[in-house]
Known about the structure:
The chain has 222 residues and is mainly α. The chain has one domain. The protein is 82% helix and 0% strand. The protein is built from 9 helices and no strands. It has helices at 2-21, 23-43, 50-66, 71-78, 82-88, 91-120, 128-153, 159-185, 195-221. Helix 1 (2-21) crosses helix 6 (91-120) and helix 2 runs parallel beside helix 6. The mean pLDDT is 84.
Amino acid sequence: MQLILKAFYIFQKDIRQEFKTRYAINAIVLFAVVTLTAVSFSIGTFAAGDEVLAALLWIILFFSAMSGLAHIFVREEETHTSDTLKLVAPPMSIYLGKYLFNFFLLLLLEFITVPLFFAVMNFSISGVWPFLASLVLGSFGLSAGATMIAAIISKASAKGALFAVLSFPILLPVLIMGINATRIVIREESFAAISGPLQALFAYAVVVVTASLLLFDFVWNE
Length: 222
């Protein structure tokens, strides 16, 4: 319980800091809106198929998330508060707190971007609840992997470029499975139709979170 409480306190701290500066929120939302606008103008009058639009949706979400999720540990290094954080909380609580914060950012991004995408691109699906389930499970996996990678590159000099390079191959399975799930729910309404991608997304999130909890102590203290 102490670990969970400290993780929640770290999550609260990051939320308060973020709403003071709005760095990560502005970065991911502006990137998503600009990318969505560019994609809509590029397609223009061309009739893009639903399967192409499903891929575009996840690509926009993925790269928008990459523009802001690294900030969670970079901010600690820039403000020189990482050493203080090591003194007040164990590594597991730190990872869980940062993980919750990145998951919150992803949900906020999807809450804004997904309705805009549906409206601008004239995109529609049959299975709303299966689609939302794939978004939530995809967010679990993306935020888990991104949080660990952000901790790894936080002390590097070229943080932004290194984060993108390391994130893409590790988080690519989430992108592929999310696209597959969205393509299925365009015409299917039941959870059974996308049980395979959902199970894969859940398994990926569990594996990444477990591996991160086991390795984070070494990454954070080295």
